[in-house]
Q: What sequence folds into this?
């Protein structure tokens, strides 16, 4: 590692390495952050959920949204894959269906940034633990 | 009763001990403060020889605990410093119960063979048990079982050890010998040479300072009293005795006389009463030592001044056997520096068996030469192979001052009322120079008296060299020999000797002559002397007794001893001559190597 | 590209002993095979604390906590969880209280009441990676001290925090630093006491293994505040992993200038060396520790002089325990005010305990001071094993006291434990159930202190030995009524007169069991009975002739040939020959053999 000669050096390094453990830090306190759960069972993967998940991971950060992106098993809405469950702090989770990268961008911009409602919400009949 | 103490001006700390106001100098322990105020606090491991900077404060026996107001636990008085406003109680029920219990614990792991213990009657633990009225030990359990070990000088019976660590302190801090140290832990902890090997395979010099401070019977001398009795009872044997200078200055203490009482005459009478055929004096041999050692000094000096680069200077005295053991162990690279002269004990033995026996018509095998020494290393020295002829030692065995006292008491000799006797001639004739061998600086002073006259050829008017006397650990002085500045050094205690020797080894200091005595104070503080029980005033008083005896002698220079002059004329020839070389000189060995090879 | 998933695997000594290194290797292999190694990172962390359930594998960001993972489970974890997003149900922790599996550690009883301050990075970061420590605000405290605070201000901040020594003594840390700072000398030392000696306690080891930089940073902060440029870690040689991690961390800090000369552009120089101890319990006592570091015999000496005045090589020395030090950086970064809100009136912050004994959740826990024993034992510890009844809890290591039911609601802190007849010690906590004999327990602890006493002072050397012998006598059924008073008086005198903390506390197990379980002592002594059925000498094995059918199974199994009887006739046990091994009871199919 490079020499840390000043306080500024230390701060710079901290900023650079922060991302390395950011994922862990965020998941320690998911209640304070946006949680994005992407259904990643066979049906989801076949419908492109992997791309969707990658899109969320890359673009949430770019938009300055502190979020935890996790994968879960099949949510039971195979007709609407890729499905994504999103919980904002203090709010009930909402499940979105047919989330392609383009729809993901829309969700980020409208629901997550501006709190507007977005098409494609699946009414849920379960509670996740 | 007067409750306030008279206070020195610098006292600054005021406290209460048992509701009495006491004021002491900062740094004073509660124990010292209490004793200063006349309050007895019992102690076992504590020891403080004030004038010699020797103290033992492990705070380990826990007998001296006292109650200090505001503290959760009892405090050991020996190592708790007085603090302003402190309130100390030394005799509360809690304190006395704790002291009693701790003593019971010590006794629960101590043999109860007081009847046959060499320390009986002179044992701090025995006295403590009596004082605290212990009649029964409530704790029964495992007893320490260490192997009792015997060396030529010292007997170790660690089952009697109370782990006060005094011997360890003496051996390491004061003497820097490093033969004894704590080993094992918990209940098995004990004091032993490294790897629990025998003393004889350790760096032990047999100085006996461990024995001198042992409060119990764990470390005692190898006692030859019964061997002596057997020889005295054997009519076919001629038994003669020599007594070292320091013995006469301390023997009286064993008979209740104040320290510093010179008992030379009574000692001679007692020895005669015991049945010795001749009572001689090691002082005679001390004068002889000066002749040889002084001549060696002058010889080395002369060669040095002539520009001889091979000459070893400074010359070191060699009359102390523990010191000889010490440099053989720790300074094997410097074996050429000490004088080759034998110690007075061994010179006496050589002359007795090779000259006096012939003169007196006694066969060597019928002659028993006994020495009374303030020293335990002398027991080892006389058993060294170099000092034997066909296996027969020049000095058969050596008894300590303590052993002699014990024998006198046992023989019902009324020591107090004995008339003064005089030594037999010729080997009882001595000068004041021989007497002062017993105190640190004495050998050097005696040598100076002779060397001065021999070197300058002029009569020395003032024979008192005050600069070499006293209890200072290392003394340095320059003596004017008619224009030649003789640089001398004196050390007592092997720790001081080590410091001085390291200076020489690293060539940080220039000396011509050095005197070294292994024991603090010199032979007066020897390992075979009456126990000082932590009282350093005794050492000073003993030294005063020797200097007084010196001052009262008609002759105070060794070379003026008429019997010595006659001995050279009739038998030895001249100092450093061939016969003298054969009988009065020796050589040294690398002992560390010998142990390693074993 | 950043990783989408972190797989944390415990790399502490306990989980390593259960193959966690192989688990890590296999996880990495599986990920490589599936070309997922760019997306999923496997990290060896320090101890998670839940050692009972180890080896632990925790998957982030979804916080899935897998327990008792074996190398054979790795493929399934990758295939199911990582690839398909399906949790591996059978590896999840089953909550014994509700009998259902819990996947997120935050919802486990074991973690719910915990507050991890000293252990903040353990089980979270890779201890061999300085960057991860820095990312967690590492060395920010040192930077703050050097850049914005005077040594005096640092000491004041620590004083204000109320932090007390976690090694056993509970002495206020800030005050200790102040003393060491006061003395002038050419050289001063900061010593980290890593000679963790309480049997079963491993918080210090876990911190050094899981977060070594926190200790290094704290030592440097202490060095700055007291004016010391040299630090020494006295660590027992039996801690090879902790030693290795410390060495790596010291080297990392040195390489990038966080140790060495002119740290972070200041005038402050600080270096750290390791000193190895041979594992003597008494060397946890600071004066004994210092003697041991000097190469002398490891035994305590009287205080004063305190190490702050005359310590290592006679120089002013500040000795702090590992856990104490681990608190320092957080106190500096978050402020004394944050820290002193945690805990009780006179004991601030948290304390790490090593939970052990007859308890469901054995492990390392950290709770705020003031948490009750009940919360620790029943909520965090998950209650007593096998549904047995709680009998006692021994806190404070081998020289702590045994507390009972009536102490369960005592809020744990330094003073309350002392007042209850026990102590905080370094945080050992051993739970006992109805099957434990309290006389035997006291004897067991005494055996340890007898073994570990340095032997220097009489009360500890001989006194503890005698205490042990009396207890042994009682458990052999040879006790006499006077023994109770003898134990009590001797115990009190030892406490009152011993030289160091070891001896001053060693009678605690005896005195506390005498106070709390007088009936058990009485039963052993007066009735020659061990109520818990533990003391072999007081038991006898008897065959009920009505139940015995003479099958001879026991006769053949008895190693001492103590059972006699003809085939198909009731057998009998010869008490003189019986060695009370219990084999016959196990063998008997008819439950005909009893212990009386």
A:
């Amino acid at each position: 590692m490079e020499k840390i000669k000043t306080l500024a050096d230390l701060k710079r390094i901290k900023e650079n390495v922060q991302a390395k453990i950011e994922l862990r830090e965020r998941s320690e306190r998911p209640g304070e952050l946006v949680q994005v759960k992407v259904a990643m069972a066979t049906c989801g993967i076949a419908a492109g959920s992997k791309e969707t998940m990658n899109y969320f991971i890359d673009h949430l950060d770019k938009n300055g949204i502190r979020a935890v992106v996790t994968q879960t098993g099949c949510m039971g809405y195979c007709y609407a894959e890729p499905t994504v469950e999103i919980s904002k702090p203090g709010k009930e989770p909402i499940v979105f269906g047919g989330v392609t990268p383009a729809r993901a961008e829309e969700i980020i911009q409208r629901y997550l940034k501006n709190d507007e409602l977005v098409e494609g919400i699946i009414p849920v009949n379960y509670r996740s633990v | 009763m007067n409750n306030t103490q008279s206070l020195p001006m610098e006292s600054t700390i005021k406290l209460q001990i048992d509701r009495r106001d006491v004021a002491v100098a900062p740094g004073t322990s509660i124990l010292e403060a209490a004793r200063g105020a006349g309050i007895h606090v019992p102690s076992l491991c504590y020891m403080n020889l004030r004038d010699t900077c020797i103290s033992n404060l492990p705070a380990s026996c826990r007998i001296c605990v006292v109650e200090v107001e505001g503290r959760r636990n009892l405090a050991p008085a020996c190592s708790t410093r007085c603090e302003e406003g402190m309130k100390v109680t030394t005799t509360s029920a809690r304190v006395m119960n704790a002291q009693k219990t701790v003593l019971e614990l010590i006794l629960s792991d101590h043999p109860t063979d007081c009847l046959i213990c060499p320390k009986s009657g002179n044992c701090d633990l025995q006295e403590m048990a009596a004082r605290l009225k212990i009649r029964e030990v409530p704790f029964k359990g495992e007893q320490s079982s260490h192997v009792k070990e015997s060396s030529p000088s010292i007997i170790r019976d660690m089952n009697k050890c109370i782990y006060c660590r005094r011997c360890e302190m003496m051996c390491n801090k004061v003497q820097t010998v490093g033969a004894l140290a704590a080993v094992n832990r918990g209940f098995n902890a004990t004091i032993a040479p490294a790897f629990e090997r025998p003393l004889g395979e350790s760096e032990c010099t047999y100085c006996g300072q461990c024995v001198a401070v042992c409060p119990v019977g764990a470390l005692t001398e190898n006692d030859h009293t019964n061997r002596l009795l057997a020889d005295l009872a054997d009519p076919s044997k001629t038994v003669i005795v020599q007594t070292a200078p320091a013995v006469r200055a301390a023997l009286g203490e064993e008979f209740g006389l104040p320290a510093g009482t010179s008992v030379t005459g009574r000692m001679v009478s007692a020895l005669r009463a015991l049945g010795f055929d001749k009572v001689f004096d090691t002082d005679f041999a001390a004068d002889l030592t000066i002749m040889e050692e002084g001549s060696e000094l002058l010889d080395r000096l002369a060669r040095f001044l002539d520009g001889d680069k091979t000459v070893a200077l400074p010359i070191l005295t060699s009359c102390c056997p523990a010191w000889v053991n010490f440099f053989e162990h720790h300074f094997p690279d410097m074996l050429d520096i000490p004088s080759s002269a034998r110690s007075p004990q061994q010179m006496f033995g050589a002359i007795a068996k090779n000259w006096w026996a012939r003169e007196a018509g006694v066969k060597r095998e019928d002659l028993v030469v006994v020495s009374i020494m303030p020293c335990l290393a002398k027991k080892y020295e006389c058993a060294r192979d170099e000092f034997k002829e066909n296996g027969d030692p020049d000095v058969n065995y050596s008894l300590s001052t303590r052993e002699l006292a014990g024998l006198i008491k046992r023989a019902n000799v009324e020591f107090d009322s004995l008339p003064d006797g005089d030594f037999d001639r010729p080997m009882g004739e001595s000068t004041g120079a021989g007497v002062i061998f017993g105190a640190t600086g004495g050998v050097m002073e005696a040598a100076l008296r002779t060397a001065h006259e021999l070197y300058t050829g002029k009569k020395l008017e003032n024979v008192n060299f005050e600069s070499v006397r006293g209890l200072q650990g290392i003394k340095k002085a320059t003596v004017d020999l008619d224009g030649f500045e003789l640089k001398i050094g004196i050390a007592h205690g092997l720790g001081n000797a080590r410091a001085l020797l390291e200076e020489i080894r690293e060539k940080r200091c220039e000396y011509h002559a050095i005197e070294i005595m292994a024991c603090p104070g010199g032979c007066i503080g020897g390992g075979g002397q009456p126990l000082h029980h932590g009282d350093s005033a005794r050492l000073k008083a003993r030294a005063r007794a020797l200097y007084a005896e010196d001052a009262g002698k008609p002759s105070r220079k060794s070379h003026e001893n008429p019997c010595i002059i006659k001995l050279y004329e009739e038998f030895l020839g001249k100092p450093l001559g061939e016969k003298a070389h054969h009988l009065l000189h020796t050589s040294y060995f690398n002992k560390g190597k010998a142990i390693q090879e074993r | 590209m950043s990783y989408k998933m972190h797989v944390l695997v415990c790399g502490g000594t306990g989980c390593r002993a259960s193959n966690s290194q192989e688990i890590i290797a296999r996880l990495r292999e599986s990920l490589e095979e599936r070309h997922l190694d760019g997306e999923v990172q496997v990290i060896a962390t320090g101890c998670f604390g839940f050692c009972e359930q180890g080896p632990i594998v925790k998957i982030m960001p979804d916080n899935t906590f897998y327990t008792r993972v074996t190398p054979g489970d790795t493929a399934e974890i990758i295939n199911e969880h990582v690839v398909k997003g399906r949790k591996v149900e059978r590896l999840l922790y089953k909550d014994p209280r509700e009998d259902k599996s819990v996947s997120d550690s935050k919802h486990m009883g074991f973690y719910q009441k915990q507050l991890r301050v000293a252990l903040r990075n353990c089980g979270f970061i890779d201890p061999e990676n300085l960057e991860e420590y820095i990312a967690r605000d590492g060395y920010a405290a040192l930077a703050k001290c050097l850049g914005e605070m005077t040594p005096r201000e640092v000491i004041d901040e620590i004083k204000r925090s109320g932090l007390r020594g976690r090694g056993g003594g509970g002495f206020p840390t800030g005050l200790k630093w102040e003393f060491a700072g006061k003395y002038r000398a050419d050289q001063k030392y900061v010593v980290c006491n890593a000679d963790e000696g309480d049997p079963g306690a491993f918080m210090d080891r876990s911190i050094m293994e899981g977060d070594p930089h926190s200790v290094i940073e704290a030592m440097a902060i202490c060095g700055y505040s007291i004016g010391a440029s040299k630090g020494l870690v006295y660590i027992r040689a039996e801690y090879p992993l902790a030693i290795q991690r410390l060495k790596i961390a010291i080297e990392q800090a040195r390489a990038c200038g966080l140790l060495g000369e002119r740290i972070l552009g200041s005038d402050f120089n600080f270096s750290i060396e390791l000193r190895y101890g041979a594992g003597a319990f008494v060397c946890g006592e600071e004066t004994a520790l210092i003697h041991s570091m000097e190469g002398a015999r490891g035994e305590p000496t009287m205080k004063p002089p305190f190490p702050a005045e005359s310590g290592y090589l006679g120089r002013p020395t500040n000795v702090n325990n590992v856990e104490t030090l681990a608190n320092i950086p957080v106190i500096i970064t978050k402020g004394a005010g944050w820290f002193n809100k945690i805990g009780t009136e006179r004991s601030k912050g948290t304390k790490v305990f090593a939970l052990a004994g007859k308890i469901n959740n054995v492990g390392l826990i950290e709770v705020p001071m003031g948490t009750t024993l009940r919360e620790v034992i029943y909520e965090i510890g998950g209650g007593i094993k096998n549904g047995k009844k709680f009998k006692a809890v021994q806190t404070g290591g081998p020289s702590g006291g045994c507390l009972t039911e009536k102490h369960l609601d005592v809020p744990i802190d330094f003073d309350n434990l002392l007042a209850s007849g026990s102590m905080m010690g370094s945080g050992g906590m051993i739970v006992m159930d109805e099957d434990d004999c309290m006389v035997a327990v006291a004897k067991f602890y005494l055996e340890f202190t007898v073994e570990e006493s340095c032997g220097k002072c009489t009360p500890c050397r001989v006194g503890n030995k005698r205490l042990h012998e009396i207890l042994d006598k009682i458990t052999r059924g040879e006790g006499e009524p006077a023994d109770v008073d003898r134990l009590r008086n001797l115990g009190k005198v030892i406490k009152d007169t011993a030289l160091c903390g070891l001896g001053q506390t060693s009678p605690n197990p005896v005195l506390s069991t005498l106070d709390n379980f007088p009936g058990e002592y009485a039963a052993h002594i007066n009735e020659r009975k061990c109520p818990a059925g533990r003391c072999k000498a007081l038991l006898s094995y008897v065959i009920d002739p009505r139940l015995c059918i003479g099958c001879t199974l026991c006769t053949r199994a008895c190693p001492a040939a103590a059972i006699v009887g003809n085939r198909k006739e009731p057998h009998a046990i010869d008490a003189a020959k019986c060695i009370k091994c219990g084999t016959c009871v196990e063998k008997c199919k008819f439950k005909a053999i009893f212990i009386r």
In short: Chain C has a mean pLDDT of 93. Residues 79 and 85 of chain C are 9 Å apart (CA to CA). Chain C has 24 helices and 19 strands. The longest strand of chain C covers residues 350-357.
